[in-house]
Amino acid sequence: MNSQFKDKVVAITGAGKSLGRAYALHFAKLGARVVVNNRVHAGEPESSADRVVREIADAGGIAVAEYSDVENPEAGDKLLATALQNFGSLDCLIANAGIVENTTFQKLDLAQFRQVVEINLMGTVNVVHPAFCHMCEQQGGSIVVSTSSAGLFGQYGLPAYSASKAAVIGLMQSLSLEGNSKNVCVNAIAPYATTNMTAGHLPESISERLDPALVAPVIAYLASGNISGQVLIAGGGHAARTGLRTTKSIPVADSVDWKILDSLRLDQSFKDASKNFEAFIAGITHDA
Q1: Which of 23, 67, 156, 161 is catalytic?
Q2: Residue 86 within any structural domain of the chain
Q3: 111 and 250 together in one domain
Q4: Sheet harboring 33-37: ordered strands across?
């Protein structure tokens, strides 16, 4: 058994069901002490967070429930406080909570758009900010944020979801750079799994192969501190590395020659925006 998480404290948002639940159970199995976050839904006789905590306890693990809604600006402070009060530290945060809209931009009410962004982007920011500051102060920790292939490539009928998940990648990349000198690693995962969000959208033959539990080992690797600034796509027991690439620049006169630009390989990657700027300017200087 991987023992690197033994007695580490891991907080997971949206951990009452689906992917978050699978992550919580996996980290507990690895010996971590887990803060299981999930908001309380009206009419629930028992919160989903409490159910997962009980599952962990029944299997011999250690966990505590936390009920903040990530939309609440104080959610991150409450999550951090719960970790510190119960376990004395916070070593890892998995920002997993999110929602989806399933409608085209033309039909989407802007209030709905804002709600998706508020939960997926600002909900991530709300919980990550206190945890990131705490980890920088203690000179160590790891954060994994949840993005999507829709954030990487876009998806018809998911404009708000795609936009919010793309923004999460930009946040992750910036925090990875900022946390580098503080031994704080920040990564992102784009999971493929059978969840409430995907119910009814996948053929049964595919759905049965996408158990959320099969994503959990990839999350654990991203949280291990071995890498930072990376986006992994994961599902069905497989993982792929992804990221942004550019072509070299070409001179532009009266118009862009798309045939030439389209023929160039997307084979350049950069540590940050400054390095991209330097390379782009070097191309301009070279052609001057």
Answers
A1: 161
A2: yes
A3: no
A4: 62-66, 33-37, 9-12, 92-95, 141-146, 184-191, 231-235, 238-242
